[in-house]
Amino acid sequence: MVRLTKNYNTTRNSLYESQLSGDMQSIENALNDHEYNLKSHKNAKTAHTSDQIIHGGFTVANRLDNLNARFANVIVNHDGKDVKEIVDARVTTDGKIAQTLKDRLDLEFNKLEQKIKREVNVDDFGAVPDGKTDSSEAFRKAVGDGRVRVKLSAGIYVIRGVKLPSWTYLIGQGKGVTTLKLHEDTPASEWVITNADYENGNRNIFVQGMSLDWNPDRQGGVGATGGQHSSCLTYAKVKFGWVKDVEAINAGLHGFDITAPTYDHLASTQYTKDGCRYIWLDNCVAYGAGDDGITTHYSEYIFISNSYSFDQRGTAHPKGQSNSNGIEVDDGSKHVWLINNFTSGNIRGVEVKAHKEWPASQNVHVIGHVSFHDVRCFDLRHIGHHKAEDPESTTAYDVTLTDCTAIEPIFNDMYEGLTPRALVVSAYKNVAVSNFTAIGDPSYDYKDNPVIALQYRSRNISLNNITIRGFKKAGFDIRLYGGPQKTDNVNLSNFTFYKSAKQGIGIGGGVYSVNISNGIMEGEGGTYGITSPNSQANINNVQTSGYSYAAMIKGNKYKFVPTNFKGGFRGATTSGAPLDPTSAIIAATGDNIAKGPRNFMGGVSGGSSTEGSRQAIIAANNSKTKGDGPARVVMAAQAVTNDDSYSVVGGYGTGSPSKNNIKWKIDSTGGHIRGVGRVESVSDFKDLAEYFESKDGRKIESGFLVTLDGDKIRKAEKGDKVLGVISETAGVIMGGAAFYWNDRYLRNEFGGIIYETINDNGRAIIVPMENPNYNPDLEYIPREKRDEWHVVGLVGQVFVRIDETVQVGDYIVPADGIGTKSEDGTGFYVMRINRSYSAEKGYGVALVFMHPQM
């Protein structure tokens, strides 16, 4: 505040002049300050805070807080769940609750900024970025005890390793601009950068903007020494760490390692207690590592984003056995996010795994990753827990791959014999893969290996929105391996294969729980779209083209992919319950219940129900099968109950379902047909007939009058008693023996079938007793297809051959099997001449009424 003198001493003296001068100076200073502040306000990027700006009745701060809370709520609840351990991770060391885990990292970074009490340049401590001078001591002095921001100049600093204490921010001029390179005399076990205190751990460390050269050519060539040593950058037991815009070059072991001080934590212990927590690697590059470019061990809440890991050297392993990966989430890691990264030229692009003795990585999420020319682009496995005789993994759970791409996996000599694949899942359970794209080289020889392989006791896997093309020389686009160490519980949905492998989907033996839906497979010279040795897979809405066969399921070849459902099916049904997994209800209303196995209800209503095995109710209302007997059917019925095994009934009634409402019944055990109404032929069939065998065993043509000669027939001659006529118009035919040998069942002395009681799965049923002379292996030819057996019309209107003597109204008698006019009015009445006598044919045709002769 400016305070001016109000009452001047009017005496012209030195005091007056001093007062006047002072006030004028105050006015000048105030005006200058005002002008300076006004210019600063105009030029400032943050002239006002967000809570000082009003927009639409709200401050900008209020709206930003509101939007931030809404976004955080979406992130926290993105899958409808809230994992308690992750929620707990949002609580800061000061007891405040961050809205997301990312917010907590940001808060901790702000703390790092606030903790830094000094900012220095390492050059001021004697460091020289000339690629020659040993600057190790200068770095040690510049870093000191932490709470410092250490700036690096452009150039190459030669060091013997940098150990960073807590609250340290090491920042260079950028990748390839500032480089830290290990000194010639540095031991092989050293790191380029690591944290200072492995025993007690460190926190809030930030490394940014530099390249780290492990210099493997020093001392004539050095390599990894074992454990977690010999890497470019290692955080061990670090809480809140950042690595941004950093390049790791030719590490002895790993380019970047987020880990615990040792690699030997057993699954039975709290194996992440000494690991890192809340670490973020962003925009980093790793290449030439002796093992993996980027890796994690026994650490949790790790973010790796926008990074590139490629062309590792694999020198940490024996030649031909180098499992050198782009990004590896290894032993004991938990809650890891890999976001928008790229790998190429590695053995595995992304590997989520563990060794035999140690716990598998859990809750790992790979989002937007691109793998190019890695041998196995994405590989999930728990070594030593794959085969049937291995112990089951108790830690290999919860991995998601979202919006990932595998481009042209290839063989690599670093790991001899490892076959290229886009995705492999072994031993892991609860794996969800969404929006996955695999692009192959049509000319590359994949040696009939699968593109995607689910194997080695993996379980509970969902593959959704899968696109595969170009793997022309692969064996399968997706293969589900069976056998003793089979995969199982697999969902495949919304997939597209285009001109890719010889076979689309292959299901192995013993794999029973598979759902395949909504797929389009367009092959080009392929063999099968889907193959399975069993018919257990649920298949729906899958279309194929370009394969020799759309599917081969349980040995049967299909030109189309069959729709197959199991497990208590309901379709076009408003209510009802198929209570057995092998039963179905289709096109039904009302509270219908299928209680037993292999029950079917179709077109039913009114609370119909089935009991027992192999039951069916079809086109019926308020009807039932009752009891535990098998094979009962109710058809076209109202209020009908069927409690007889091996039978079909129909009928109509009112009120509750009852046996008394049955109107017709077919008995399968005895072959009986019963009905309360008439049996009526509504066609133009006119006669009642029975099968007879010809005496000479030869065929007698239609229309000839025949007589009995013993128990066989021949053409009737004049004076013979006519049995009937060879007929083609019979409405009812008896004695056909169409299904089996006439003497298949034993009969009593009066021709009645002899019955016996047998045990049918614990139930007593009565069936015909079989003749011991019956041979089911002999082919039976029914009588209708044998020349010696004839249908003889006995009663009714029949067509008869006649000679030239016959007119309408005459009676006929036989003459060599042909009807001729009766002279005495006996014989059979001629109703109509259908065809006049033809001398050329030697007969005419008349419609004659046949009746039994007395």
TrEMBL record:
Stored SMART domains: PbH1
InterPro entries the UniProt entry points to: PbH1, Pectin_lyas_fold, Pectin_lyase_fold/virulence, Peptidase_G2, RHGA/B-epi-like_pectate_lyase
Membrane-crossing segments per the record: none
Pfam families named in the record: Pect-lyase_RHGA_epim (PF12708), Peptidase_G2 (PF11962)
Record domain Peptidase G2 IMC autoproteolytic cleavage: where: 632-850
Rhamnogalacturonase A/B/Epimerase-like pectate lyase domain sequence ranges: 120-321
Coiled coil: none
Protein's name in the database: Peptidase G2
